[in-house]
Design brief:
With 482 residues, the chain is of the alpha/beta class. The protein has helices at 9-18, 22-42, 77-84, 100-109, 113-116, 128-134, 142-148, 163-166, 209-223, 274-277, 284-314, 346-349, 375-383, 459-472; strands at 59-65, 88-94, 152-157, 178-181, 193-194, 200-201, 230-235, 321-327, 332-333, 339-340, 353-356, 365-372, 404-408, 419-423, 427-432, 437-441. It is globular. It starts with 8 loop residues before the first helix and ends in a 10-residue tail after the last helix.
Length: 482
């Protein structure tokens, strides 16, 4: 069986387990648990090779919003003025697995879910912080690579789902000099929350988590020694549900939001899989309310971007800082009758992504390449002249992909079956474990209304995408079978 160069024995064992028939998974899971306990005594997963090559290493700042759609940038003037205008906007930025923990795991490890083994937010054997930790990924994260190369590293905000529930009290993952994460079962909150340094915040306006975390992130920049490069991973909770804006921003966009009238809110769902056909209708009013609240919640995230850029400028770091703004996944607000995330439609898989690095990225540029969350680790380590094995591409280079896998495991309480699929800039194909298939041509159907998968004229294209999936969506999600 092929495997990713540099992956640990534990990851390879887990990949083999996921490739086995369902009736054998439990037995392999028990065997995996035994191997994990032995591995902690025998040998730890090997860290990435961190070799500093000639050149001046940039500071690296990643701002990762939570559940932000690609079309929710209108009311973020700081991102537009301070990042997009000075850098590049990726028009086809995507996440292969549109769920919080799998996406964040891909950012930290540079691996797809089928290589990381992190498929969901919290399933015991293949999701959440527990899977990320058990598979040895904390010891080969981008933070470890950069810290080993001399970077001062800091994570401020949301880490991985389940961390607050299962990690030992006081545990700090490898690779972080500063680790000030949400210490809560929900992985993040706006009010009434604990952080891992033991501090507690209540329900006053001054306790609003995005503002609190932004101050801590700015402090991390200020307190890093002048000649030490820094890596800051700033992950606020906004605009995740329940979409609570800072008190100062409540109702601030009521008169500015435009009506949301897309055909996917009301179109027939004939030809779609059963989980979509049986979903209840969502009113346009509800969709608009969610979008309004999300965009109000993003105002404080935008304020945080402004604060960080100002701090970088005042500390003399901005001219040599690679600054990336993106999100872990998008969400449905009623399209196709769906609410939430974790489905293959473009509202979920498309994310905003902008990148600034003065002198290295042409200001005001647009990049039409498919850019993925798995590319961030490769981009950061290449910029820092550090070697790290990953599945991604260096987005500062010229490499490009013609398509990318999309994949997901069925999560508890979710009627959506597990799936493997393929995305290009023009096409989206997905095959579910139920045997149902979808194919959409964005050139003529940008709202994914007309499923072409079962039309005879498209059988060759479906067959081509199936072949790509079988080659790249491997091992398949735990409950998926061709």
């Amino acid at each position: 069986m092929s495997h990713v160069p540099g992956e640990s024995v534990v990851i390879r064992l887990a990949r083999r387990a996921r490739a086995l028939p369902v009736q054998r998974v439990l037995g392999v899971a028990l065997a995996t648990a035994l191997v994990l306990s032995l591995m902690t005594q025998a040998a730890s997963p090997q860290p990435p090779v961190a070799v500093v090559l000639p050149g001046h290493r940039p500071n690296i700042v990643l701002v990762l919003s939570d559940d932000q759609r690609a079309d929710e940038m209108t009311h973020m003037p700081n991102v537009r003025r301070l990042l997009t205008r000075h850098g590049v906007r990726f028009t086809h930025a995507m996440v292969p697995n549109s769920l919080c923990c799998p996406s964040r795991s891909s950012i930290l490890s540079g691996l797809y879910s089928h290589d990381s083994g992190v498929w969901t937010n919290g399933a015991k054997w293949y999701g959440g912080w527990s899977a990320f930790h058990a598979n040895g990924l904390e010891s080969r994260s981008v933070a470890v690579a950069l810290q080993t190369a001399g970077y001062r590293t800091g994570l401020i905000g949301k880490y991985l789902n389940g961390y607050g529930s299962y990690a030992p009290k006081g545990y700090v993952p490898p690779g972080w000099n500063t680790f000030e994460a949400f210490d809560t079962r929900r992985s993040g909150k706006y009010f009434n929350y604990w952080l891992t340094d033991g501090s507690h915040y209540g329900g006053e306006a001054s306790d609003y988590s995005t503002d609190v975390l932004a101050k801590r992130a700015a402090r991390f920049v200020r307190t890093t020694p002048a000649h030490t490069p820094l890596f800051l991973y700033f992950a606020p909770y906004g605009p995740h549900a329940p979409w609570l804006p800072a008190p100062r921003d409540e109702t601030s966009l009521n008169a500015k939001m435009k009506p949301y009238r897309v055909p996917s809110l009301t179109a027939s769902r004939r030809g779609k899989p059963a989980y979509v056909r049986h979903a209840p209708k969502v009113s346009a009013f509800h969709a608009e309310t969610v979008l309004l609240r999300q965009e109000e919640t993003l105002i404080s995230v935008d304020d945080a971007v402004g604060r960080l850029v100002r701090t970088l400028r005042r500390t003399g770091r901005l001219h040599n800082t690679l600054f990336v703004y993106t999100s872990d996944n998008g969400v449905e607000v009623g399209e196709h009758g769906l609410l939430g995330k974790d489905v293959p439609y473009h509202e979920d898989t498309d994310v905003p992504m902008v990148m600034r690095w003065d002198g290295h990225i042409p200001p005001g540029s647009v990049d039409p390449r498919i850019a993925l969350n798995v590319d961030l680790a490769a981009t950061f380590t290449t910029a820092a002249s550090v070697r790290m094995q990953s599945d991604g591409l260096d987005l500062l280079g010229s490499a490009r992909r013609r398509g990318a896998v999309i994949e997901a495991e069925q999560t508890p309480g979710h009627r959506r079956p597990s799936y493997c699929g393929w995305r290009t800039r023009r096409w989206m194909y997905v095959r579910y474990s139920s045997g149902e298939q979808e194919l959409y041509d964005y050139a003529t159907d940008p709202y994914e209304l007309h499923n072409l998968a079962h039309l005879p004229a498209y059988r060759p294209r479906v067959a081509r995408f199936v072949a790509l999936d079988k080659a790249h969506c491997y091992p398949t999600p735990p409950s998926f079978h061709w």
